[in-house]
Task: structure prediction
Amino acid sequence: MSIELGKARLEQDALAQLLGIKINDIQAGYACATMEVRQELLNGVGLTHGGAIFSLVDVVFAAASNSHGPVALALNVNINFLKATKAGALLTATAREENLTRKTGIYRLEVRDESGDVVALAEGLAYRPGSKQ
Result:
């Protein structure tokens, strides 16, 4: 039931819709999403804008951290950009829960291109303000 709630919340994410981010899978502590890089997602030198990649990471992080039911909010995300991509690239992001406590969760976040190459690695810390578990 909490996974369905997480999906419903993401359907209300206007930025994810604007960027064309699609959630492919949500399980307890895990999520996967994709985004096709369009021309309007490029920076001034013709590469995928870091903000677009970060947004993909943020959406998949939100999906995984909210998969348990209680609202989870990002406290911190550290990201490393490892490979540049261009228009036409299909980026796939995954979030995997590494640690979950009553109030926090730590997630490993990866973005890969259609060749399986790592585009970005990140770590996210989520806060669960209403959790009573």
